[in-house]
Design a protein that fits this description.
There is one protein chain. By secondary structure, the chain is α/β, with parallel strands linked by helices. The protein contains nine helices and eleven strands. It has a five-stranded parallel β-sheet with strand order 2-1-3-4-5, with helices on both faces. Helix 7 packs across helix 9. The longest helix is centred in the middle third of the chain and has 15 residues.
Length: about 240
């Protein structure tokens, strides 16, 4: 039986909490736990299992960015950020901390639902991953991607932790190795939408992937920037 997604909503605006709880539970059959600040969110996270966190960055007391930083030390649970219009800096920092997507306020609940579903699909369901036994591993520059388990192993065979968004970005690059992919192409592959003129989500994710793949400088040129074009994974890929 398919597991019902359990969503943790963290927002100090009671109307938004109530709106999302009703919308996601009554109309779309998800479980929702809604809390007003980071203190309550920490307690809730310690007492339950969640498939995704909807996190407002403008929280009273401990801010959303600080909570996201703490959350990433505890779990790779997907995070969808809620940001006020014009908060580009906070949005970028949030993505750097490992958030999977973002929505500017005010937002349309249906669009947020679409983002939540897309992130949940990318993160994958545990049962779905167990049955995905036919996927073949991908080897490149000593590294190995294991699609059946959504894992990345370094040349020593040690798993390197990736967020859902980072994993899917790497898969998109590896499956199209030595081919230039523009930001628009990558955003379309990952999110099904075109990039806005100031959308740096892909740049941030590429930067994080580079840090994880450089492996003490041995693979510093693995993901190359193509001026005026985009990014390319410069490696030979083998399927195992």
């Amino acid at each position: 039986m398919e597991q019902t997604p359990h969503i943790l909503v963290v927002d100090d605006d009671r109307e938004i909490r109530d709106l999302l709880a009703r919308f996601l539970e009554e109309k779309h059959h998800m479980r929702v736990t809604a809390v007003r600040d980071a203190r309550e969110a920490r307690r809730a996270f310690g007492n339950g299992h969640y498939h995704l966190v909807v996190l407002d960055l403008m929280l009273p007391g401990e801010g959303g960015l600080d909570f996201a930083r703490w959350l990433r030390t505890q779990s790779d649970v997907p995070i969808v950020m809620l940001t006020a219009m014009g908060e580009e800096t906070d949005r970028i920092i949030g993505l750097e901390l490992g958030a999977d997507d973002y929505m500017p306020k005010p937002f349309n609940p249906r669009e947020l639902l679409a983002r939540i579903r897309a992130v949940l699909r990318r993160a994958g369901d545990p049962q779905e991953r167990r049955t995905e036994t036919s996927a073949r591993s991908l080897r490149f520059a000593g590294w190995m991607l294991v699609p059946a388990r959504r894992r990345l192993l370094n040349p020593e065979g040690v798993e390197v932790a990736l967020t859902g968004g980072e994993y899917d970005l790497l898969v998109a690059l590896v499956e199209r190795a030595n081919r230039v992919l523009t930001r628009d192409m990558l955003l379309d592959l990952l999110r099904g939408r075109q990039a806005g003129p100031f959308d740096r989500a892909i740049d941030v994710a590429i930067s994080r992937l580079r840090r994880k793949l450089e492996d003490d400088g041995r693979n510093a040129q693995l993901i190359k920037t193509v001026r005026g074009g985009g990014y390319v994974l410069a490696a030979t890929v083998e399927r195992a």
